[in-house]
C-alpha cells in the first residue's frame, strides 16, 4: 500500500522531467560549424556550399602530391595520357606520380589507401551537389531567385562532373541522391544513361540559371565570369550533343552562345585574361600570391623542367610540330627555354607565373572558341560545309591563318579535328577526349602513330579508360573494374 | 521530579565498580561543566561522551569533593541539573534525564519496558540503529535522539543486540527483573575495513552491505604519496584499475582504464564525478605534446582536498549512470568539516625528484666507430657540409648528455592548511594549499598550483532540512619548456659541442655555411630554454545539496553543481632561441590558446527509507539535467620586431587562426533504484535509468539501462555462526546489467560543414564550405553488458579478509568509422557496428592483520587483477586491421618475425608467411607474430608496520606479461637521419653484423637512409618488442607521531613527521627508460623518483 502511494508520488514529481526529455536534449546546431539543418536556410551559407566547390576546383597544389591527381589536374593528367605533354623523368615524387598517366600504365591503388583521385574527387563534389539539391528543394527560407540560381549551378556542376567521369572512366555508377546506403552498393551503368542524366540536368539548369553573371551571393550581378550561368549550361550542353551525335541540337545550342552579345572572340593574347569576352566560365585563383595553377605548372623557368612538384612537364614534339606555318598560336601560346642542348617547349596560354604578380588571368573552363569548333563540326556533319568553314575560319583567322573553304566532309572533319588540337591543347583534356570519341585513340596511341611506345609504354586499347580505384572495388561488391586492369 | 533509577548491565556495573575504586578530588568554582570533565579526564583517564546540546544553557557549576569515587564526584557535579550519566569501559556518557509521561514501570499484564539511548563515541545520538532482543522477538529502530523503547519484555536474561552500519555490533547481556530497564549504549566506530563508508551512486554504503563492486581509497592513503595528480595515488591499489602516466612531467595526461578496453575506437575513459558533478576527463588542447595530449585535468585538483576516491566497476554500481557508465565510474569526494572544536591542520612537505635510471648509450669512441663503419659499409665519405659530428666537431669530446640535460633534481614543495570545526548543526572546513614542482631539465621551469576549498554543512534543528555546499578552486601555472630535452639527451652525439661559449653566451657552433651545426630538430638545448611556454589553468568545482524530509523516511533533495575548467596557453619562440644565421629568413612567432569547459548539472531526487516486513527498503527516484559547453580557440601571431613584445598581439604583423571549437552537450535522464535489505542477510538492489544524449542521432537519442544485483550475507546464518565460528564475515554477491558509453565527440551524427582552410584568396571574396561528414540519424550508444559474481570472506574477527570477483563484460554496438566507397562522396561514416569486445577477468583482494600486539602491528593488503580482452566478433565494415584481430586482444598487433641480420649481406631478414627468410616482407601476409600490449595480470602488495607511534608502509606494484616497444633504435644505426637528429644509439647496437659470416640480431651500420625500408620493417617486427613486465616499489612512507607529552607542552596535537617516497625502485627486464612509458626512441620523461620530508600538525 505504502509503496504504491510512493510510486504514484515519485511519478508525479518526476514525470515532467522524464516526459520532457526530448526537449531537454535538443541542442542548437553548432556555432562554429554548420550542418545540413541550417546551411540551406540562409542565402549566403547555401551559396557558400557551391563556392566551396569552385574554391576546391581552383585551389590545391599545382601538381598532384599523391600517387594520383585530383579533378583540378585534369588538364595536366589527360594531356599526359594523350600526346600533348612529356614528363620530365627522375625519382622525385611528382615524376613518379605522373609517369603512369604519361605511359598509359595506371595501376589501381592499394586497397584501403586513401589516395585522392579524379574519381573520388568528382564523387565527393557530386555528393555535395546531390545533398544541396535535396535540401534546397525542401528549403523555404531561401530567396526564390537565389534558390533558383543555386539549384541551376548545382545541376550544372553535377552534369560537369559526370561528363568527365563518363569520359575518363567509361561506364560509371550514377549517384543522384545523398543516401550513402543506396550509393555504397551501386553498380556501373551504361554511358548512355549517364549522358541522359547529364542532358536533363543541363536542360533544367538552363531554365534555372541567370543569363548574366552573379557574385558570391548568387544574386548581385557582376562582370566576373566566375559562376556558371545559363550560357555555361548551354555551352556544355552543346558539347554533350556533339559527343552524342545530336548535331542539330549541338549546332543550335552552340549558336545560342555564339550569338549572345556577352561573348566575342578576342585576340590570342587576350583569351585567357580574367573576364575576357571569350570566357563563358572561369575559375578564380585562390592561392595567395599566385595566378592560375596552370601557369605555375606549365610556364617553365629558364632552368627548364624539373622532376619536382613545379614544372614537371613540357610539350610533346608531336604537338609543336603540328602547327601550320604562320599559326600565331605556335608563338603566342607556346614558349620555350633552352637548357644546354635541349629546347623545351611549354604551353604559354597562361603567362603570369611569378609569385606576387597581380592576378590578371583566370583559369578557363568553358570558352567561346570551343563553341565555334563545336558548331563547325556539327555543321560539317550536317553537310553545311559553308557554315562549318565560316565557324572554323573564325578560329583560323584569329590565329593569323588564311581562311579555308572545303566541300568534302571527311577532310573538313579532319581539318576541324586538327584545329581543335592546336586551339584547345592542354585545356581540360579536350585532346584526350577527342581522341576517344573520334575512335582515333588506338591509331594515335598505338599503331600506326605509336605515341604510347614513344612515351616509353606499350599501348592496350583498354587503357583509354582510367581504372576504378581498388578501394571502391573492395567496399562496393557490385562495382567491377574496367577491362585490362 | 521523579528521578528514575539507573540500571546497568552487568558489565557496566563491573566497570562502575572499578570506577568507584578510583578516587577523585575536585575543587572547581563557577566553571563550565566541560572544564570539570577535562579535569576529571586528566586525573582518571576517563573519556567523557556527550552531545553538545545537552550542556547548552546549563550555566556553571561549583564542585568541591575530596577523594571520592568518580560516581560520587559526578553526582556532586550534576546536583540540580537535568543530567544523568552512565559509565562504560572508561567512558562516561552524559545524557539528559529521561522524563516520560505515565508510569510504565509496572504494567498490569506483567509486560516490562526496555528503553534506552544509543550514542556514538562522541556522544552524538545514533538515529536508525537496529535494537534487537532476539530471545523476545523484539526489534526497533532508534529515533532522531537515539532513543528506543522495547515494549512487552519479560523478565529473564537476554542478549541485547544493537547494530548500525559503520559501527561495531553492540552485544550485551541484560537481566530484566521486575522493573523497567534503561540502557545507555555507546557504539564504537568499526575499524574493520568492511564497515568503512563507501561512496556509491547517489548515496553511501559499506563494503559489508554493498551488492555492487566498489573499491575505495581514502584520504590517508592519498596523503602519503607525493603526487600532484590524485589519480596517480590509485596506482597499484585498486583491483581492476590501471592508471598509467604518459610522462614524468607534472600535469602529464593519464590513461585510466577499468577492467580493460571496451571500445574499438572510442577509448575506455571512465566517468569522473567530483561531489556529484561530472568532471571532464580531458582538457581541450595544448600547444605542445609533451604532456601527452593536452594534459590531465585531475592534476588541477588538490589531492589534500580529497576525502575518498571510489571506483565503481560492476553493473550494479554503474548502471544507474546509464549511457555514461560503461567504462566504470570514479567518484571523488572532498573533505567535509566535522563537529567539534575549531582546529587548524597544517602540513608542510618538501623534497626532490630525479630521473631514476640512465640509458646506456654510445660514448664518443664507440659512436665514432659506428659512424666510420657506416660510411665504410656504404662506400661513402663523410660530407663536410652535413656530417659535422665527424668533420667539424672536436671528436675528443665525450659528453654524457643525459647527465647534463636530465641529471638535475626537481624541487617538490607542498603546503596544506585547513581550518575546520563546527557544532552539531553547522560544520565547516576551509582549506588552502600550495604545490610547486620543478623539472629535471636545466632552466627554471615549474608547475605551480594554488588551491582553496570551502565546505559548509547545515542541519536544521528539527533535522529535517539539510544543506551542504562545497567549492574548490585552483590556479595552475605550468611553465613547460617547449622542447623535448629527453630526446636531445638520448639522441645527441656524444661529441656535440659545448652548450655555452667560454664567455657564457649560447654556443651556436656555426659551420662552413655560417649556419649552426647543431642538428636541426634538436638544436642547442640550452637555446631552447629561452623559448617560453606558459600554461595557466583555472579550475572551479562547486556543488550543493538541499534536502528536506517531508515525512519520516521520505526526503526530497536537489543536487546542483557547476564546474568550469579554463585554460590559457601562451607559447613564444623568440629569436634568442634560434640560430642567428636564420634570423634574416625567419619570423618570430607566438601562439595563444584559450579554452573553456563548463558543466552544470541539476538532479532532483526523491528518496524513501522505511521498513517493509522485517526488512529495510530504500527507494530512490531522480532525474538528471546536464549541460556541457566546450569552447576554445587558438591563433598564431607572427612578425614581431622584437623578442620583448611577443606577448602583445598588436605587435604582430600577421595573425592566423588555429582552432575554433564551440560545442554543446546536453544530457537528460530519469532514474530509479530500489534496495531491499532483509535482516542484514539478504540484499537486493535493482536500478534503472532512461537516458537521452545530444551526442546521438535523432532516431536513437533515448535508451534504457538497468541492473539487478543480490547479496547473501551467509555468515549470519546459524549454520555458519554455529558451525564455523572462525568465519566472521561472508558474502556472496552477483549482479547483471547494461550500461552504455557516449564517449563520442559532440555532433558526430551531423553532416557538419567546415570552412575550406588554406585558401589565400577567397573565391569571389566569400569563404566556401563543404560537408565533412555524413549524417547518421541512427548513431547510438556503445552498449556494455556486465556480469559479475563475488565472494567475500572474513576470518578471525575479520583479521583476514578475502574478496574475489569474477566478471565478464560484453560491449557491442561498437562505434567506428565505417569505410565507404568513394562513390558515396565520403570515405567513412560514424556508425555503430555489431562487433563485440569482451573483457573477462578475476580480481582478488586479501587484507590481513599479521601481527596485532600491543606495541606492534603489521597489516598487509594484496590485490591481483587478471583481465583477458578480446575482439570476440567482427562485423562487416570493420577495417582490415581489426578483422585480423578477431579472437585476439584489441591492444595487440601482428608484426613481422625478424630473423636477424642476413649473415651474408648484413641486412635484416624476416620470415615470410611460409617461414622462409625474406628481405622484402609483404605487409598483407607476412605479419604473423602476435604481440599483446595488454598486461596479463597486475596488482599491488602493501605492508604497513606500526611500532608504537612509528608507522612504515610500502606498496609494491607489479605488472606482468605485457609487451611494449623497446629502446633499440629509431633509425638505422650509423646514420644522422638527414642531419635532423644527431643520432646516438643504444649500446646494444655494438653487437651488429660486421663481416660476412657474422650472426647478429642487429644489421650492419649504414649511413644512407635509403636503406630505411629494412629498418621500417624491423620496427614493425618482433625485434623491437619485448617484455615490459615490472615490479615497482611504488610508494614508501615512514611516519612518526610525536609522543603525547611533547604535544601538551607545545599545544600542538597529532604532530607527526614523515618521509614519503614515490617510484623508488623498479625491477624490470625492459630496455628503455621505464616500462610505464615505453617508446622506441626514448623521448618521454619516465616517472620520477620523488622523495619528500614533511611535518603535519594540528592546532
Summarize the structure in words.
The complex is a heterodimer of chains A (485) and B (1099). Chain A is mainly α and 485 residues long. Helix content of chain A is 48%, strand content 6%. Chain A has helices at residues 2-19, 21-24, 36-39, 43-58, 74-81, 93-102, 118-138, 144-169, 180-183, 191-208, 230-243, 247-258, 293-298, 317-320, 329-332, 368-381, 385-398, 409-423, 430-437, 441-445, 451-454, 470-475, and strands at residues 34-35, 85-87, 279-283, 313-315, 334-339, 342-347, 363-367. In chain A, the strands form three sheets. In chain A, strands 2-4 form a two-stranded antiparallel sheet. Chain A has a two-stranded antiparallel sheet with strand order 3-7. A two-stranded antiparallel ribbon of chain A has the order 5-6. In chain A, helix 11 runs parallel beside helix 16 and helix 12 (247-258) packs antiparallel against helix 16 (368-381). The longest helix of chain A is centred in the first third of the chain and has 26 residues, at 144-169. The model of chain A is unreliable at 1-12 and 15-20 (pLDDT under 50). Chain B is mostly beta strands. Chain B contains 15 helices and 54 strands. In chain B, the strands form 13 sheets. Chain B has a 22-stranded antiparallel barrel. The longest helix of chain B is centred in the middle third of the chain and has 14 residues, at 364-377. The radius of gyration of chain B is 34 Å and the shape is globular. Chain B starts with 9 loop residues before the first helix and ends with a strand. The relative contact order of chain B is 0.10. Residues 1-20 and 100-108 of chain B have low confidence and may be disordered. The chains are: A mainly alpha (485), B mainly beta (1099). At the A-B interface, helix 1, helix 2, strand 1, helix 3 and helix 4 of A face strand 29, strand 30, strand 31, strand 32 and strand 35 of B. Strand 1 of chain A pairs antiparallel with strand 35 of chain B, so a sheet runs across the interface.
Amino acid at each position: 500500500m505504502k509503496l504504491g502511494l510512493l510510486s504514484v508520488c515519485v511519478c508525479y514529481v518526476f514525470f515532467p522531467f522524464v516526459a520532457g526529455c526530448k526537449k531537454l536534449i535538443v541542442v542548437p546546431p553548432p556555432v562554429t560549424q554548420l550542418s545540413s539543418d541550417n546551411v540551406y536556410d540562409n542565402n549566403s551559407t547555401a551559396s557558400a556550399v557551391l563556392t566551396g566547390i569552385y574554391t576546391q576546383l581552383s585551389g590545391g597544389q599545382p601538381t598532384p602530391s599523391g600517387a594520383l591527381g585530383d579533378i583540378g589536374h585534369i588538364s595536366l593528367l589527360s594531356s599526359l595520357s594523350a600526346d600533348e605533354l612529356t614528363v620530365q623523368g627522375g625519382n622525385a615524387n611528382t615524376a613518379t606520380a605522373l609517369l603512369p598517366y604519361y605511359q598509359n600504365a595506371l595501376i589501381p591503388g592499394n586497397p584501403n589507401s586513401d589516395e585522392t583521385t579524379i574519381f573520388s574527387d568528382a564523387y565527393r563534389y557530386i555528393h555535395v551537389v546531390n545533398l544541396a539539391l535535396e535540401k534546397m528543394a525542401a528549403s523555404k527560407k531561401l530567396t526564390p531567385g537565389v534558390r533558383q540560381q543555386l539549384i541551376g549551378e548545382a545541376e550544372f556542376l553535377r552534369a560537369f562532373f559526370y561528363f568527365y567521369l563518363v569520359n575518363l572512366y567509361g561506364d560509371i555508377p550514377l549517384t543522384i541522391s545523398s543516401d550513402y546506403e543506396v550509393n555504397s552498393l551501386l553498380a556501373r551503368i551504361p554511358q548512355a544513361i549517364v549522358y541522359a542524366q547529364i542532358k536533363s540536368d543541363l536542360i533544367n539548369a538552363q531554365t534555372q540559371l541567370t543569363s548574366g553573371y552573379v557574385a558570391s551571393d548568387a544574386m548581385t550581378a557582376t562582370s566576373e565570369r566566375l559562376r556558371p550561368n545559363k550560357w555555361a549550361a548551354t555551352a556544355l550542353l552543346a558539347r554533350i550533343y556533339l559527343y552524342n551525335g545530336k548535331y542539330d541540337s549541338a549546332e543550335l545550342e552552340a549558336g545560342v552562345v555564339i550569338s549572345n552579345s556577352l561573348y566575342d572572340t578576342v585576340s590570342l593574347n587576350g583569351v585567357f585574361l580574367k573576364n575576357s569576352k571569350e570566357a563563358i566560365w572561369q575559375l578564380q585563383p585562390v592561392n595567395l600570391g599566385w595566378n592560375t595553377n596552370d601557369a605555375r605548372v606549365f610556364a617553365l623557368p629558364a632552368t627548364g623542367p624539373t622532376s619536382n612538384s613545379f614544372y614537371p612537364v613540357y610539350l610533346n614534339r608531336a604537338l609543336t610540330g603540328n602547327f601550320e606555318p604562320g599559326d600565331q598560336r605556335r608563338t603566342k601560346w607556346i614558349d620555350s627555354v633552352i637548357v644546354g642542348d635541349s629546347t623545351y617547349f611549354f604551353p604559354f596560354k597562361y603567362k603570369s607565373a611569378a609569385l606576387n604578380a597581380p592576378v590578371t588571368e583566370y583559369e578557363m573552363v568553358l570558352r567561346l572558341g570551343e563553341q565555334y569548333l563545336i558548331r563547325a563540326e556539327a555543321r560539317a556533319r550536317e553537310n553545311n560545309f559553308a557554315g562549318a568553314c565560316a565557324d572554323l575560319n573564325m578560329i583560323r583567322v584569329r590565329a593569323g591563318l588564311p581562311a579555308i573553304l572545303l566541300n568534302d566532309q571527311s577532310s573538313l572533319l579532319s581539318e576541324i579535328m586538327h584545329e581543335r588540337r592546336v586551339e584547345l591543347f592542354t585545356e581540360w583534356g579536350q585532346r584526350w577526349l577527342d581522341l576517344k570519341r573520334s575512335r582515333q585513340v588506338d591509331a594515335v596511341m598505338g599503331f600506326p602513330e605509336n605515341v604510347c611506345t614513344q612515351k616509353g609504354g606499350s599501348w592496350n586499347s583498354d587503357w583509354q579508360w582510367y581504372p576504378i580505384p581498388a578501394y571502391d572495388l573492395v567496399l562496393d561488391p557490385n562495382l567491377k573494374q574496367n577491362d585490362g586492369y | 521530579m521523579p528521578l528514575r533509577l539507573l540500571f546497568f548491565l552487568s558489565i557496566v556495573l563491573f566497570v562502575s565498580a572499578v570506577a568507584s575504586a578510583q578516587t577523585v578530588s575536585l575543587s572547581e568554582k563557577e566553571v563550565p561543566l566541560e572544564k570539570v570533565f577535562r579535569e576529571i579526564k586528566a586525573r582518571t583517564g576517563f573519556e567523557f561522551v556527550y552531545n553538545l546540546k545537552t550542556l547548552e544553557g546549563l550555566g556553571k557549576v561549583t564542585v568541591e569533593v575530596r577523594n571520592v569515587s568518580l560516581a560520587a564526584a559526578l553526582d556532586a557535579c550534576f546536583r540540580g541539573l537535568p543530567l544523568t550519566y552512565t559509565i562504560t569501559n572508561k567512558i562516561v556518557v552524559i545524557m539528559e534525564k529521561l522524563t516520560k509521561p505515565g508510569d510504565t514501570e509496572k504494567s498490569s499484564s506483567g509486560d516490562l519496558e526496555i528503553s534506552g539511548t544509543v550514542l556514538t563515541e562522541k556522544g552524538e545520538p545514533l538515529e536508525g540503529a537496529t535494537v534487537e532482543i532476539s530471545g523476545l522477538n523484539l526489534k526497533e529502530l532508534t529515533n532522531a535522539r537515539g532513543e528506543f523503547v522495547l515494549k512487552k519484555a519479560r523478565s529473564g536474561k537476554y542478549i541485547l543486540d544493537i547494530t548500525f552500519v559503520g559501527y561495531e555490533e553492540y552485544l550485551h547481556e541484560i537481566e530484566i527483573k521486575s522493573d523497567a530497564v534503561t540502557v545507555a549504549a555507546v557504539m564504537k566506530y568499526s575499524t574493520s575495513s568492511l564497515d568503512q563508508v563507501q561512496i556509491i551512486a547517489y548515496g553511501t554504503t559499506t563494503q559489508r552491505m554493498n551488492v555492487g563492486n566498489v573499491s575505495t581509497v581514502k584520504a590517508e592513503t592519498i596523503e602519503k604519496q607525493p603526487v600532484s595528480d590524485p589519480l596517480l595515488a590509485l596506482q597499484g591499489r585498486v583491483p581492476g584499475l590501471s592508471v598509467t602516466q604518459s610522462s614524468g612531467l607534472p600535469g602529464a595526461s593519464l590513461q585510466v582504464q577499468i577492467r580493460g578496453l571496451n571500445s574499438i575506437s572510442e577509448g575506455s575513459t571512465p566517468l569522473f564525478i567530483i561531489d556529484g558533478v561530472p568532471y571532464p576527463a580531458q582538457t581541450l588542447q595544448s600547444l605542445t605534446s609533451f604532456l601527452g595530449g593536452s594534459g590531465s585535468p585531475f592534476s588541477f585538483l588538490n589531492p589534500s582536498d580529497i576525502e575518498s576516491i571510489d571506483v565503481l566497476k560492476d553493473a550494479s554500481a554503474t548502471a544507474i549512470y546509464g549511457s555514461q557508465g560503461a567504462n566504470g565510474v570514479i567518484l571523488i569526494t572532498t573533505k567535509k568539516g566535522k563537529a567539534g572544536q575549531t582546529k587548524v591542520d597544517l602540513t608542510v612537505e618538501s623534497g626532490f625528484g630525479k630521473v631514476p635510471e640512465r640509458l646506456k648509450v654510445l660514448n664518443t669512441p664507440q659512436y665514432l666507430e659506428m659512424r666510420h663503419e657506416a660510411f665504410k659499409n656504404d662506400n661513402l665519405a663523410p660530407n663536410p657540409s652535413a656530417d659535422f659530428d665527424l668533420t667539424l666537431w672536436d671528436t675528443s669530446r665525450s659528453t654524457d648528455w643525459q647527465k647534463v640535460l636530465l641529471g638535475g633534481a626537481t624541487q617538490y614543495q607542498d603546503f596544506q592548511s585547513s581550518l575546520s570545526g563546527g557544532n552539531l548543526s553547522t560544520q565547516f572546513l576551509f582549506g588552502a594549499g600550495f604545490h610547486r614542482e620543478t623539472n629535471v631539465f636545466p632552466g627554471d621551469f615549474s608547475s605551480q598550483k594554488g588551491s582553496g576549498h570551502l565546505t559548509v554543512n547545515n542541519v536544521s534543528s528539527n533535522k529535517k532540512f539539510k544543506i551542504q555546499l562545497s567549492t574548490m578552486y585552483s590556479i595552475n601555472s605550468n611553465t613547460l619548456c617547449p622542447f623535448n630535452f629527453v630526446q636531445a639527451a638520448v639522441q645527441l652525439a656524444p661529441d656535440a659541442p659545448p652548450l655555452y661559449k667560454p664567455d657564457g653566451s649560447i654556443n651556436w657552433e656555426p659551420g662552413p655555411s655560417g649556419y649552426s651545426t647543431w642538428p636541426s630538430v634538436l638544436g642547442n638545448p640550452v637555446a631552447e630554454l629561452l623559448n617560453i611556454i606558459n600554461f595557466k589553468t583555472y579550475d572551479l568545482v562547486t556543488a550543493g545539496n538541499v534536502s528536506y524530509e517531508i515525512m519520516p523516511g521520505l526526503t526530497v533533495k536537489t543536487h546542483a553543481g557547476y564546474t568550469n575548467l579554463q585554460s590559457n596557453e601562451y607559447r613564444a619562440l623568440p629569436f634568442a632561441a634560434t640560430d642567428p644565421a636564420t634570423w634574416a629568413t625567419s619570423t618570430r612567432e607566438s601562439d595563444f590558446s584559450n579554452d573553456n569547459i563548463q558543466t552544470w548539472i541539476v538532479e532532483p531526487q526523491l528518496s524513501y527509507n522505511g521498513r517493509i516486513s522485517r526488512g529495510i527498503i530504500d527507494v530512490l527516484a531522480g532525474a538528471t539535467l546536464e549541460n556541457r559547453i566546450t569552447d576554445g580557440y587558438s591563433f598564431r601571431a607572427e612578425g614581431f620586431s622584437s623578442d620583448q613584445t611577443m606577448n602583445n598581439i598588436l605587435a604582430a604583423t600577421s595573425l592566423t587562426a588555429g582552432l575554433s571549437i564551440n560545442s554543446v552537450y546536453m544530457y537528460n535522464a530519469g532514474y530509479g533504484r530500489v534496495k531491499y535489505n532483509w535482516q542484514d542477510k539478504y540484499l537486493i538492489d535493482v536500478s534503472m535509468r532512461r537516458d537521452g544524449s545530444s551526442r546521438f542521432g535523432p532516431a536513437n537519442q533515448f535508451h534504457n539501462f538497468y541492473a539487478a544485483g543480490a547479496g547473501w550475507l551467509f555468515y549470519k546464518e546459524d549454520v555458519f555462526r554455529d558451525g564455523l565460528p572462525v568465519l566472521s564475515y561472508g558474502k556472496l554477491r552477483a549482479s547483471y546489467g547494461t550500461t552504455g558509453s557516449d564517449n563520442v565527440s559532440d555532433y558526430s551524427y551531423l553532416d557538419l560543414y567546415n570552412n575550406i582552410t588554406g585558401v589565400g584568396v577567397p573565391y569571389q571574396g566569400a569563404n566556401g564550405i563543404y560537408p565533412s561528414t555524413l549524417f547518421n540519424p541512427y548513431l547510438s550508444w556503445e552498449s556494455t553488458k556486465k556480469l559479475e559474481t563475488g565472494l567475500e570472506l572474513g576470518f578471525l574477527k575479520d583479521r583476514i579478509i578475502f574478496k574475489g570477483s569474477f566478471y565478464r563484460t560484453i560491449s557491442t554496438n561498437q562505434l567506428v568509422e565505417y569505410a565507404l566507397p568513394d562513390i558515396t562522396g565520403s570515405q567513412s561514416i560514424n556508425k555503430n557496428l555489431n562487433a563485440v569486445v569482451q573483457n573477462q577477468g578475476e580480481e582478488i583482494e586479501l587484507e590481513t592483520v599479521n601481527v596485532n600486539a600491543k606495541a606492534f602491528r603489521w597489516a598487509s593488503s594484496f590485490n591481483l587483477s587478471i583481465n583477458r580482452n578480446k575482439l570476440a566478433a567482427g562485423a562487416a565494415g570493420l577495417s582490415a586491421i581489426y578483422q585480423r584481430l578477431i579472437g585476439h586482444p584489441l591492444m595487440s598487433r601482428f608484426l613481422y618475425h625478424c630473423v636477424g641480420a642476413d649473415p651474408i649481406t648484413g641486412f635484416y631478414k624476416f620470415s615470410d608467411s611460409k617461414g622462409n627468410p625474406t628481405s622484402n616482407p609483404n605487409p598483407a601476409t607476412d605479419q604473423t607474430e602476435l604481440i599483446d600490449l595488454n598486461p596479463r595480470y597486475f596488482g599491488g602488495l602493501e605492508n604497513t608496520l606500526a611500532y608504537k607511534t612509528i608507522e612504515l608502509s610500502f606498496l609494491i606494484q607489479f605488472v606482468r606479461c605485457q609487451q611494449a616497444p623497446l629502446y633499440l633504435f629509431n633509425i638505422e644505426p650509423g646514420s644522422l637521419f638527414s642531419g635532423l637528429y644527431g643520432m646516438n644509439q643504444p649500446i646494444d647496437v655494438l653487437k651488429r653484423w660486421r663481416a660476412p659470416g657474422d650472426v647478429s640480431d642487429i644489421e650492419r651500420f649504414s649511413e644512407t637512409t635509403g636503406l630505411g625500408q629494412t629498418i621500417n620493417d624491423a620496427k614493425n617486427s618482433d625485434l623491437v618488442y619485448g617484455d615490459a613486465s615490472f615490479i615497482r616499489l611504488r610508494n614508501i612512507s615512514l611516519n612518526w607521531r610525536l609522543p603525547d607529552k611533547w604535544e601538551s607542552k607545545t599545544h600542538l596535537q597529532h604532530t607527526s613527521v614523515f618521509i614519503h617516497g614515490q617510484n623508488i625502485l623498479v625491477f624490470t627486464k625492459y630496455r628503455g627508460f621505464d616500462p610505464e612509458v615505453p617508446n622506441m626512441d626514448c623521448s618521454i620523461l619516465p616517472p620520477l623518483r620523488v622523495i619528500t620530508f614533511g611535518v603535519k600538525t594540528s592546532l
